[in-house]
Amino acid sequence: MQAIQQLNIGILGGGQLGRMILQNAINLNLNISILDPDKNAPCKHLVKKFVCGSLTDYDTVYQFGKDKDLITIEIENVNIEALKLLEKEGKKVFPQPHIIELIQDKGLQKMFYQRNDIPSPDFFLVENKEQINKYADYFPFFQKMRKGGYDGKGVVKLSNPHFLDKAFNVPSVLERLVDFKKELSVVVARNENGEINCFPVVECEFNEEANLVEFLFSPADIKKTIEKEAIKIATTIAEKLEIVGLLAVELFLTKDNKLLVNEIAPRPHNSGHHTIEANITSQFEQHLRAILNLPLGDTSIVKPGVMVNILGDFGYEGTAIYSGLEDVLKFSGVYVHLYGKEKTKPYRKMGHVTIVDNDLVKAKQKAKIVKNTLKVIA
């Protein structure tokens, strides 16, 4: 068996997720190369080999991957055909290309849930804006572009068929509005041996303007029966896909205590950032363990935690300045992670802060102070 330190590993994407994977790769002395379209990507100066190029261009992805033993991703928007050829030529590609392909298309995702009896909101598929009128009796909807959406982009709420000026004129999923009381997430890992391990369920609180997670609470304030069911659903999806790597499963908890899968992501995820400080094994270490077919780590909570996303402030665009950093670092149990992005713009993810405390209520109080104190301006 080839030692993991001798493997030539490539990551498609050099943003904040790649950066945090690298921080754990250093601990295992792994040989990592990065491909990213941004010449100033956060990972650029953290690897011996950084290639600036398109993640969606066939030739670029193939040329990057052909001398690698193992290829993984930190973003789904990558060229699938190049990855399929690399896999056919004997390269290990995790998560597997056909899984990335399924998850790139929200319509295929919904059909996967339907085929496998995985609970998910009711939906319709449309090819264009005009076809939305066929479902006038079923409003309101969230319209989700089948391809290309991320971080809240490519999603719009459609309340009434008479006001479709905001609708996308592209192939889309029309997802029936869910009357939910909480949004939850489970990060699950699976290695080549089929070993599966889930992180404890977390609760997400969204910024409605940015349509991004603003706060994350670990553990989620839910009944044990709900937690068991959420972990069962996440495990079932990982098993059905036979994924190798990490999978984040986002869920709605309805007002009548039913769980519905919203979306899945085959990579480290924003809803797992707190695990760096709050859990025995972080999601980034777990991702590496999974794709290298190592024993999966203990996901137990060390201390309750709150994660705050640090977003670019509204009204500021340009070279990033972090206001209030010294003030938040005065607090015990506060861990700041800045992503190394040179430029800020409104609602861009610029970093996150994890707050750990034996008392989750106290952690939440500190988190609100952090949110109001640490600002990204220009």
Structure description:
- This protein has three domains: 90 residues, Rossmann fold, CATH 3.40.50; 55 residues, Dna Ligase, domain 1 (2-Layer Sandwich), CATH 3.30.1490; 198 residues, ATP-grasp fold, B domain (D-amino Acid Aminotransferase, Chain A, domain 1).
- It is built from ten helices and 22 strands.
- Strands 10, 11, 12, 13, 14, 15, 16, 19 and 21 form a nine-stranded antiparallel β-sheet that branches. Strands 3-2-1-4-5 form a five-stranded parallel β-sheet, with helices on both faces. It has a four-stranded antiparallel β-sheet with strand order 6-9-7-8, covered by helices on one side.
- Helix 1 crosses helix 8, helix 2 runs parallel beside helix 3 and helix 3 runs antiparallel to helix 4.
- The longest helix has 18 residues.
Condensed summary:
The protein has helices at 16-27, 58-65, 80-88, 97-104, 106-115, 224-241, 275-278, 283-291, 325-328, 360-373, and strands at 8-12, 31-36, 49-52, 70-73, 92-93, 123-126, 141-145, 155-158, 172-176, 180-190, 196-198, 202-207, 212-218, 245-254, 259-265, 305-311, 318-319, 321-323, 334-338, 343-344, 349-356, 375-377.
Note the beta-strand portion. Answer: 25-35%
CATH architecture of the largest domain: 2-Layer Sandwich
Please report the first level of CATH classification, the CATH class of the largest domain. Answer: Alpha Beta
CATH homologous superfamily assignment of the largest domain:
ATP-grasp fold, B domain
Which stretches of 5+ consecutive residues score pLDDT under 50? none
